[in-house]
Amino acid sequence: MPDWSYQTLFRPLLFRLPSAAARDFTLRAMGGLSRIPGGSFIIRTLGHMELHPMLRSDGWGLSLSCPIGLSGGLDPRGTARQALSQFGFGYIEIGPVSVRPISDPRPILRDVAQEAILYPDAYVNIGLDETVRRLSKERGRKLPYLLRIAHHAGADPEQAMKEHLRLMDQLVPYAAAFVVDAIDMTWKPEEIKSMLQSIHEAARTRYPDKPLLLYLPLDSSPSLWDELYSQDHSTQWDGITIGDFIRTEEGAVIGRNGKADCLTKIRMIRDTLGPSVPILAAAGVHEPQDALDLIEEGADYIQLHSGLVYSGPGLPKRVNEAILYKRTITSPDPGPFSFWRNWGWMCLLGLGMVLGGILAWIIAATTVILPYDEAFLGMDPLSLSLISERLLYFMSHDRITLAGTMISIGILYGMLARFGLRYGLHWSKTALATSGIIGFGSFFLYLGYGYFDPLHASAAIILLPLFILSMRGRADRPSRQEPSLHNDRAWRLAQWGQLMFVVLGFALALGGLVIAGVGISYVFVREDLAYLCMTPEMISQINDRLIPLIAHDRAGFGGALFCDAAAITIIALWGINKGERWIWWALLLGGLPGFAAGFGVHIAIGYTDLLHLSPAIFAVLLYVAGLILLYPYMMGAQSPSIVRTRLQHRG
User: Fold this and answer.
1) Distance separating alpha carbons of residues 228 and 237, to the nearest angstrom
2) Using H for helix, E for strand and C for coil, what is the string for 411-462?
3) What pLDDT is stored for residue 651 in this prediction?
4) Dihedrals φ, ψ of 642, to 5°?
5) pLDDT digit string (tens) for 208-221?
6) Given a cut of 60, is residue 426 above it in pLDDT?
7) Of 571, 559, 561, residue with least CA distance to 593
8) CB contact at 8 A, 615 and 507
9) How many helices (H) and strands (E) does the chain have?
10) Rounded average pLDDT over 150-168
11) What is the per-residue pLDDT across 357-391, written as a single tens digit (0 to 9) for each?
């Protein structure tokens, strides 16, 4: 459920349901998908949330793939933990966990205007025994778990300490670290301080290598922190976690407004403890800029909760991209790879596809068939036209649409190489590799009816080495384009634009598969035969080699369309980003030849059956709508400060 589907389709529907029902439905759906074969691959493919090595950190002695974590309160039963671990998190919090289960029948409420969630009780959980049972059944866990433990309301300090130690004893096999949520506002400060010291000493004795983080409630007063703080006590904790909820008479509020209190707490901790103690901030992050503000103030790690509900599951990826950009923009720009290392070969391949497509278009619009086609048929174009003028037109229609698709592929390849592969963007190499493998593999479709095309074979032999040379070396540099930091109107429109192109990519892929399948099986659809005013038997009676020749053209076009669709789909899934003007131009210029060829040739030859053209009409509507919706987001001016920073580093 990436942002382009969440913001446009799922969030409006889910927000019509009660909060708890919407949450449970979403978690069950994601959890179910992750458990089927290939489900995790689908989640990763739709979101492309792979983490760059530069995001790695060693927090609390743990090796974390990124500094972004998931709050335990979002999935208290662990229903979709495997799915959520694919979203770009470096760790997952589990909890709060108490000795006995805590439930509350009152409904969870949303305040959409404030982007907040109201929980009647922030400590609702399934209890220690059920938590252990579920954790013991997990297999193949990839992310470290931070176990947040809490005592029951109404416990005195001595009972609370016993509960915390019991929780640790049973949860230690599953905990990478413990978050000790033991500050009870009903106790006196000296009682809290003494109890925390006792828990800390006992835990250090029992589990000397297990990191311990102190949980500081978001709504705790600065005076309480001053009372608790002492140099010989507080610095013994391996980190401080700032909570995410504010208590009210109605319950606990978790939302965007918690950011202000979180910033205050970060400053307070840094003023007393200095820079050495890691801080985990868990409140108020609803867009990447919120996370950057917390980090700028002194937070080391960010934990997400309500932001995932209101901004979407792509938020951790966007936050990671913002952090990565901040880290890379201050380092020297390594510059582009050399032309002949890899990307230049792909540019030549793209140029070859464009020139080949133009040549094929000219031939298809004039003589239609080539000398080796004549030799195969034993008939020249004039003979064919005398038998049936529409037969030659029909063959021209297949070949011109193939030519337009070839030009589209060449443009996309050239731009992906020039602006993506040249700068080491991993997703652009993946798009080129996937599309190229499909394209060269589709050559075998030409043989579906036993017709060997020497021109296509020669082109494949010439272009294949260029493709192989272009795939050399790794391509995993981070983008130096500033990512989107705000959930503004341009970003929201872009989610619709991205949806248009994702649907377009999948529709073209389906169309390519169908056309290729028809080409190697039935060859004609009903509308084709209606246009030709002939049956397959009549065509075979004219020349029994005509159908293999037509089948070769149809299968080739289907394979080329699927190849083109693969590149478009990956661009739409992974390449859409703020200010990436070249991608917008690639989509515009890459689509024009294909649509111009498709509609132009059908109009020219009089093949204007509305049912036959309806898929193409649907595709062009998606194409135009997608470009319009993406324009403000991708073609907007870059901020002067960013341009200035880049020029300084490149200079």
Assistant:
1) 13
2) HHHHHHHHHCHHHCCHHHHHHHHHHHHHHHHHHHHHHCCCCCCHHHHHHHHH
3) 43
4) -70, -45
5) 999 999 999 999 99
6) yes
7) 561
8) yes
9) 27, 12
10) 95
11) 999 999 999 989 888 888 888 888 888 888 888 99
- Structure tokens, 181: 């949520």
DSSP three-state, residue 573 = helix
E strands, 83-235, in order: 91-97, 109-111, 116-119, 145-150, 177-181, 212-216
**Residues comprising the chain, all counted:** 651
Q: How far apart are CA 555 and CA 517, in angstroms?
A: 7
Q: What angle do CA 597, 600, 602 make, to 5 degrees?
A: 105
Rounded-to-integer distance, Cα 580 and Cα 494, Å: 12
The per-residue pLDDT for 642 is: 46
Any idea which residue has 């002695």 for tokens?
61
Spatial distance between the Cα atoms of 592 and 623, rounded to a whole number of angstroms:
10
Separation CA 443–CA 457 (nearest Å): 8
Nearest-CA neighbor of 175 among 203, 152, 205? 203
Residues 432, 413 contacting (CB under 8 angstroms): yes
Are 337 and 470 a contacting pair, CB within 8 Å?
Answer: no
Local confidence band at 648 (pLDDT 50, 70, 90 cut-offs): very low
Distance of alpha carbon 69 from alpha carbon 90, whole angstroms: 6
pTM (2 d.p.): 0.90
Q: Cis ω on the peptide bond leading into residue 96 (within 30° of 0)? A: yes
Euclidean distance between CA atoms 242 and 303, whole angstroms: 10
Judging by beta carbons within 10 Å of its beta carbon (0-12, 13-18, 19+), is residue 238 exposed, middle or buried?
middle
Q: Is 296 exposed, middle or buried, given 0-12, 13-18 or 19+ CB atoms closer than 10 A?
A: exposed
Quick check: 326 and 469 in contact, CB under 8 A?
Answer: no
Please state whether beta strands 145-150 and 116-119 pair in parallel, antiparallel, or not at all (unpaired): unpaired
Provide CB contacts within 8 A for 386, sequence distance 6+.
none
User: Strands (DSSP E) along 78-130, which ranges?
Assistant: 91-97, 109-111, 116-119
Sheet holding 116-119, edge to edge: 109-111, 116-119, 252-255, 246-247
Q: In which element (H, E) is residue 240 found?
A: strand 239-242
